[in-house]
Structures are given as C-alpha cells and as structure tokens.
Amino acid sequence: MTSTGLVIVLAVAAGVSLVRGLLPRLPLPGPLLELLCGLMLGPTVFGLVPVDPLLSAVSVLGMSFVLFLAGYELDVRGLVGPGERPARTGLVISLVLAPIATGVLWLIGWDLRAAGLVACALLATSVGLVGPLLRDSGLATHRVGRLTLAGAALGEIAAIVAISVGFGAARTPLASLALLGVILALGALTAWVFAFVARSPRIRAAVLAQADGGGQARVRLAVLAVAGFALLASTLGLEAVLGAFLAGGLARLVDPDPETTHPGFLIKLDALGFGLLIPVFFVTSGLRLDLRPVLADPRAVLVVPVLLILLLAVRGTAALAYRPVLPARDVLTAGLLLATSLPFLLVAAEIGESSQFLDHAQAGALALTGVLSVVVLPTVAVGLGRRSFAAGVP
After folding, report:
1. Residue 138 DSSP symbol
2. Per the domain annotation, does 81 fall within a domain?
3. Directed axis angle between helix 53-72 and helix 217-235, to 10°?
4. Which domain holds residue 42?
5. What does the pLDDT read at residue 82?
6. Predominant location of this chain (predicted)?
7. Predicted confidence band at 354 (pLDDT cuts at 50, 70, 90)?
8. What distance in Å separates the CA atoms of residue 96 and residue 91, rounded to the nearest whole number?
9. How many domains is the chain built from?
10. How far apart are CA 373 and CA 310, in angstroms?
11. Distances (CA, A) of 392 to 52, 55, 163, 379, 386
12. Are the CB atoms for 361 and 111 separated by under 8 Å?
C-alpha cells in the first residue's frame, strides 16, 4: 500500500527539523510547528492532504508512543520524596478544581460527559514539551524546574487514570476502577517476570547479543509492550492510552537507570519516536483538525478563552502549593509551565469525537486552546525563570 499523504507528512516532519536547526532561536517547539503545518495542509486552510488509512494507522502508533515515552520518562522514585511534597499538594488542588471546571462548561451549554472529559484532560501538563524547555533554558536543575517536572508528571498520571476510568468502554466507573486494578496487577506481574528472567545470564547475553544491528531486541520488546498493553486496556474496556502509558512506566520500572545501564537504548527510542512516529501524530492531528466550525461560530470562538482560563485555573493554580519553598516569580513560572498542554488535549479531542462526546467545533476549540497554551505560556515562563536564575535563586 502506498500513501501520498504519509510521504507529505514525512516531508513536513523533515522540514520542521531543518527549520528548527536553521533558526535555533525560534520560540515555537517542534510539535507545535508540526501541528501548524498540518492545519495549513488540512481542511482548515488549503485542504490538500487527506488522512488515508495508512497515515491514520501510523498516527495511532505515534500517539501511543507519545504516551509510552511519557510513562518511560516518569521516575516514580523522584515523586515520593519529601522534596516533592509541594508537587503532590499541587495535584490535590488541581483535582479539587477539575469538578468546578466541569460545572463551568456544563453551565455554558456543554454536555456533562464532554465537560467531564475536558476537565480530566486539563489535569495534564505536556512533560514532553516542558522538559526540553527547562533543560534548554538551564532551569531543569533549578528548584522551580524540579518541582515543575514533578508536578507535570503527577498531572499526566492523574489525567490518564481519570480519562480511562471515566470514559472507557466499561459501563460504570466502579467497573473501570476494577479493570484498572486488573491491568495494574498484570503490569506488575509482567514487570516481575521480566526482571526475574533478565537475571538469567543466558537471557541477558541473548538480549545483549541482539541489542544492536539487525536484532534490536530491546526496541522490539518496547514496541511489543506498547502494542500489547494498549490492546489489553482496550479489550478490557479502558482507553488504549492507559496501556501505552503503563507500558512506558513498566519499562522504566524494569530498568530504573537506563542512562547508565543501556544509554544506547534511550537514543534508539528517541530515534523511533521523534524520528518517525511522533511527528506523524502531530502533523496528522493538524490534518484532522477542522477549525472552520470554530472560527465560523462566535460562540465556539468565545469558548477558547474560557478553556484557556480553566486550564490556567486547574493546572496553573497548582503552583500555589510551591509558595512556601519558591519566591513569587518562580511560582508564576511554574504555574505557566504546568498550564502548558497540547498532546493530552489533542488526545482528549480525538477520544471525544470518536465517542461522540464532543462535536467538531468543541474538539477544535479544545485543540486550539492547547495550541495557544504552547505558543504563549512557555515563552513568558522561561523568561521569568531565567531572571530568577540570573538573580541566583537556587
């Protein structure tokens, strides 16, 4: 099967990489540029590239890999220490405010299920976008950077669990919780089996012998984990995104220090994800988005600032928990970064449309909110953070 659309999307992905290399000061992250290119080529502007079955399948793999890498980058050990207590308190604040966001959307005319889905998505922060920004700006080792990353990771976990439990195919949330427990138990058992088998010298030698070249055993096992747990979650009636995220977390649990034990594996994961699958997901998301219903409907346009305010309230307000350990400027920095969200809003838009919780205009407004959050909030936040860093705040 050939796909002209896939070739065009790959050309866009390559072009975005070149543009960012030629313009290193460009403040827009790669995923946002890919999404914007998709919007230009899709029905919103020129309508040149349709989404065919092959492109759609690769895009689904890309979405799964986004969530796999989010789970893989999550180091649970860094979330349970006393230093991360403000991040955990911030998550509690977000969990309290999310039902209020649901009520606000319901009051302005949204279906209650749609409002609840969006409120769950508002819990998430784009770790994949915020993390590189903090590292590039030198703030990752700064206290504000560490707390922001911890808060972002906790928000992703909460969003994944909330969406899976509240909006899976299982009939009731109680049944979804039971299924979630089953999946977690199976995941823990799988991790234990892998850890036990990996202790065998023969198995370890076999994996190492096939780690590079044509074998790529570790990469193949990672891809199997993504597909297998996504299928398991979907089969049991939960969202497949839970399985992909869980697969990443289990891979990290089996090998908690891959930077030292298998540094080449991280490079390969980045190559597979950011070299192929993830750019296809973002460009295709732009192709699927049709913002014409949003732009043509004044009520839908007015929803966008409401959603952005709710995003700032649900996630940004969580940074108030950092006030005892951070100065006011750093609290504002953390709040803006925590409210930076794009991938999960795109995922929620796709889930909402496929489940018929959201119509085209609502899904488009949600995606546009994510775009605005990535365009505006990180630029202001990093500028504030650099000032604190220059002032010598630890």
Report:
1. T
2. yes
3. 100
4. 35-167+276-390
5. 66
6. membrane
7. confident
8. 9
9. 1
10. 11
11. 53, 49, 40, 20, 10
12. no
Does the structure show a pLDDT above 90 at 176? Answer: no
Instruction: State the Cα–Cα distance between residues 318 and 40, nearest whole angstrom.
Output: 35
Question: What DSSP assignment string belongs to 3-58?
Answer: -HHHHHHHHHHHHHHHHHHH-TT--S-HHHHHHHHHHHHSTTTT------HHHHHH
**Cα–Cα distance for residue pair 256/265, rounded to 1 Å:** 13
Tell me which amino acid residue 157 is: I
Cα→Cα distances 13→31, 196, 243, 277, Å:
9, 40, 26, 10
| pLDDT tops 70 at residue 277 | yes
Closest CA to 87 of 187, 157, 188: 157
Residue 102 lies in a domain: yes
What CATH code is carried by the domain that includes residue 358? 1.20.1530.20
> What pLDDT does 144 receive?
85
Length of the chain: 394
Give the separation between CA 139 and CA 144, rounded to whole angstroms. Answer: 7
Cβ(254)–Cβ(198) under 8 Å?
yes
What are the structure tokens assigned to 150, written together? 């911890």
Residue type, 7: V
Query: What pTM does this model have?
Result: 0.84
Query: Is residue 303's pLDDT more than 90?
Result: yes
Report the percentage of the chain scoring pLDDT > 70. 92
Angle of CA points 273, 167, 278, to nearest 5°: 10
Q: What string of DSSP letters covers 269-306?
A: HHHHIIIIIHHHHHHHHHHH---HHHHH-HHHHHHHHH
- Of 351, 380, 389, nearest in space to 367 by CA: 351
Report how far apart, in Å, the C-alpha atoms of 21 and of each of 15, 274, 284 are: 10, 15, 22
Instruction: Please compute, for residue 159, the number of CA atoms within 13 A of its CA located in the half-sphere on the CB side.
Output: 34
Q: 190 lies in a domain?
A: no
Cα–Cα distance for residue pair 111/102, rounded to 1 Å? 10
Query: What's the pLDDT at 169?
Result: 58
Residue 182 lies in a domain: no
Given a contact cutoff of 8 angstroms between Cβ atoms, the answer to whether 127 and 70 are in contact is: yes
Give the contacts of 87 (CB within 8 A, at least 6 positions apart): 79, 147, 150, 151, 154, 321, 322
Is the pLDDT score of 38 beyond 70?
yes
